[in-house]
């Protein structure tokens, strides 16, 4: 597509070069026609030819400058893609770390509660064992061997022996339970310390990723500044937007050609004014309004805070999840029966091609990839390639 733009500009410039040259030649012949009838026009002809040569050199230099500018811009756009992808990877890693942090913190809380309960159980068991030991000590004055050898009052002796056996069994059971509690408490305490160490490691990793994110954002900002210094004319801007839109259309047409319809994907035809917007925010550009020249917005641009979750409007399958020139990090969802929704300029993409997504499921995080001036989401709904007004579907 860049080749198309470069060829277009160069071909236009070549056309203008030919026209200017013809005009200059015409002026040259017109100015020199009377001079040919006189012997003093040789110098005028030489001057005219010299001027024509200077103009042609200036045009050639301008052609070279435009070619170099387009080449440099193409390189910067590739660098912008690299910067956007670097930010996306770091942001996704941070998002995963935050999820792990939440799980780890929850485990630590649960283990702390379990540890507290085990300590209470341990204390109760210690008190019970102490009570049993005191009871055994107070009855220890009865010599068990003497009772066995004493033949008097055999029935009383039998009851006493049975009582001792019962007490011993209860004591053994309590001791075994106490040992199990101690072992479980040790295990929980070890796991608790492990999770605390894991939490600290995750925090350190998150800090490292935050630093990487700042570096990547600074690099992206530098790239955008270089791009902004290369001012485009209105016609060049129109051609750029037209090329990007055509690039999107070609990508969507290719996706439509490989879609394998799923039985349970019924499209959006019966869901007008029933769907939720993918993100809450102020609408910066509405469907159908003027974009540049004769181009109009095929969707809506919604302003939203960076890193806010982008949610799919309906269940479907991820058809595209990658960076696309002019749209940055883009996700396209197939909803069945020729209906698609697309979400552009994300900071990071949370779903991969082929994954099934459900209504309201997070699929990306708000960003400003692709050169967007401020954080936001570009959102479209299409049916068999035709852009539809999202306002008729989302409420």
Automatic annotation (TrEMBL):
InterPro entries: Cell_wall_metabolism_enzyme, Dup_hybrid_motif, M23ase_b-sheet_dom. Residues 59-107, 224-262 form a coiled coil. The keyword Cell cycle does not apply. Gene3D superfamilies: 6.10.250.3150, Glucose Permease (Domain IIA). Residues 297-390 form the M23ase beta-sheet core domain. GO terms for molecular function: metalloendopeptidase activity. It holds the Pfam family Peptidase_M23. The keyword Signal applies. Residues 1-35 form the signal peptide. Keywords: Coiled coil, Signal. This is Peptidase M23.
């Amino acid at each position: 597509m860049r080749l198309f733009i470069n060829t277009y500009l160069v071909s236009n410039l070549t056309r203008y070069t030919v026209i200017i040259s013809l005009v200059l030649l015409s002026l040259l012949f017109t100015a020199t026609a009377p001079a040919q009838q006189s012997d003093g026009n040789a110098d005028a002809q030489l001057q005219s030819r010299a001027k024509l040569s200077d103009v042609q050199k200036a045009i050639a230099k301008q052609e070279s400058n435009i070619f170099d500018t387009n080449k440099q811009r193409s390189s910067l756009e590739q660098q912008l893609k690299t910067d956007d992808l670097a930010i996306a990877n770091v942001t996704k890693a941070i998002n995963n770390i935050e999820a792990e942090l939440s799980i780890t913190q929850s485990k630590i809380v649960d283990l702390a509660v379990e540890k507290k309960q085990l300590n209470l159980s341990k204390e109760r068991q210690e008190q019970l064992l102490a009570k049993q030991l005191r009871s055994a000590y107070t009855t220890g004055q009865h010599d068990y061997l003497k009772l066995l050898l004493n033949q008097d009052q055999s029935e009383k002796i039998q009851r006493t022996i049975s009582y001792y056996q019962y007490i011993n069994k209860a004591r053994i059971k309590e001791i075994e339970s106490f040992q199990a509690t101690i072992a479980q408490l040790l295990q929980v305490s070890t796991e608790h310390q492990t999770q605390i160490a894991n939490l600290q490691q995750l925090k350190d990793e998150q800090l490292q990723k935050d630093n990487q994110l700042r570096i990547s954002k600074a690099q992206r900002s530098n790239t955008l500044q270089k791009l902004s210094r290369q001012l485009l004319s209105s016609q060049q801007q129109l051609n750029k937007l037209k090329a990007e839109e055509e690039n999107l259309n070609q990508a969507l047409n290719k996706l439509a050609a490989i879609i394998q319809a799923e039985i349970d994907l019924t499209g959006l035809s019966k869901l007008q004014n029933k769907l939720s917007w993918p993100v809450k925010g102020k609408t910066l550009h509405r469907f159908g309004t003027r974009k540049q020249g004769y181009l109009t917005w095929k969707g809506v641009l919604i302003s939203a805070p960076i890193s806010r979750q982008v949610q799919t409007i309906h269940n479907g399958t991820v058809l595209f999840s990658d960076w696309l020139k002019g749209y940055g990090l883009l996700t396209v969802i197939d909803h069945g029966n020729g209906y698609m929704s697309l979400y552009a300029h994300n900071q990071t993409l949370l779903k991969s091609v082929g994954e099934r997504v459900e209504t309201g499921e997070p699929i990306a995080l708000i960003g400003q990839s692709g050169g967007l001036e401020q954080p936001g989401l570009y959102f479209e709904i299409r049916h068999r390639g035709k852009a539809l007004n999202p306002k008729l579907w989302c409420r």
